Amino acid sequence: MSDLTPLSELTAAKRIVVKVGSALLVGPDGTAHAAWLADFAADVARIRARGQQVVIVSSGAVALGRRRLGLGKRALSLPEKQAAAAAGQSALMRAWEEALEPIACAQVLLTRDDTEVRRRWLNARATVETLLTLGVIPVVNENDTVVTEEIRVGDNDRLSARVAQLVGAEALVLLSDVEGLYTADPRSDPDARLIPRVSHLTPEIEAMAGGANAVAGVGTGGMATKLEAARIASQAGCATIITLGTRARPLAAVEAGAATTVIEPATTPRAAYKAWISGSLAPAGFLTVDAGAAAAVQRGKSLLAAGVRAVDGRFDKGDAVVIRDEAGREVARGLIRYAADHARVICGLKSGAIEPALGYTSGPMVHADDLALAAQAETR
Ligand code: GLU
């Protein structure tokens, strides 16, 4: 068949975030779908064996917790949902651990603040990066126990897009109970067509998320939240693939040409991150660096404390700072790893002298990954 071509967005991505909804994970009896999970785990193991990294965003805590707490199927208040999530999250992790064995997985619970407050964002990112480096699969969910209405993401479609942004993923797969985005309701309209590819999320496309597609997703999010997730992902340089998750090996099915809607990224993850650093963050301080450090930064190296001559401003760890040379020219902007007081203490010190001076080290002043060069900022 001509459509048996692997979907390049999925096969080329170094990092893939897969969102698994409650409907796939939890059966009508309120227990985890072990057979589906085992097949899905094999699908994930296959992708990892080709060298790709996978992050799973998993719902199901509330659904599993309902049964544990004997809450039946009735509508739950927010405190009841939180209680159910607290009881169900451990059952959810046990199901994932059993399914993914022998691959290790780790529970990562996030709230909206963790992806919005820069310092927490950096901490969450560092942890997830470390897990991926160690070959572990992070299994992410919202930290339902502590969130209130104002600070919750509320649905795992959008949470998964924020996770994709956090880890710089190139592909986000939203496993759904529909095959993708349709032009009309396929159950009632014989002319309804699946839209295989969306290059830009136009108002016309977004309007399609209402009406016919609104019922999609028996979990929290319908098609509207999926397209919202796709918008966040696209701006972060990540492609979104919406596809039917009820199949035994949904990722293999996508690669074999199964029906999907792909929403293309508007940029690359790296460019999106650098644009965020150089454009959207108000700098809170200035680092004046010597010629050697300025040249190193321009070559894409980290800024070491040894090359910093002066520290100005009041800033916290994770804030944006401007790096300038001794003539006052801006060299780059970046996220600093030390608060201003500590940066002043270690300014000019060799890396090995940081720990004796502060009692800890966070590595370079500004890591290369968190730097956007001034020239790059101008050309965008
Ligand atoms: N965090 C919720 C849970 O684990 C799910 C939210 C969603 O499905 O979008 O039950």
What does this structure look like?
Helices cover 40% and strands 18% of the residues. It is an alpha/beta fold and 380 residues long. It has 2 domains: 6-269, Carbamate kinase (3-Layer(aba) Sandwich); 281-379, Archaeosine Trna-guanine Transglycosylase, Chain: A, domain 4. The strands form 2 sheets. The protein has an 8-stranded mixed beta sheet, sandwiched between helices. Strands 10-9-11-12-13 form a 5-stranded mixed beta sheet, with helices on both faces. A hairpin with a 5-residue loop joins strand 11 and strand 12 (330-335). Helix 3 packs across helix 5 (78-100) and helix 4 packs across helix 5 (78-100). The two termini are 42 Å apart. The model is unreliable at 215-220 and 376-380 (pLDDT under 50). The structure holds glutamic acid. Glutamic acid is lined by residues 21-22, 59-63, 85, 141-142, 144, 155-156, 219-221.
Q: Total helix count?
A: 16
> How does the overall form come out from the CA principal axes?
globular
Query: How do the strands of the widest beta sheet line up side by side?
Result: 3-4-2-1-5-7-8-6
Level-1 CATH class name of the largest domain: Alpha Beta
Query: What separation lies between the terminal Cα atoms?
Result: 42 Å
Structural class: alpha/beta
Small ligands present: glutamic acid
Work out the count of structural domains.
Answer: 2
What is the radius of gyration computed over CA atoms, rounded to a whole number of angstroms?
23 Å
The CATH homologous superfamily of the largest domain: Acetylglutamate kinase-like
CATH topology of the largest domain: Carbamate kinase
Q: What is the correct CATH architecture of the largest domain? A: 3-Layer(aba) Sandwich
Residue runs with pLDDT of under 50 for 5 or more positions: 215-220, 376-380
* Beta-strand fraction estimate: 15-25%
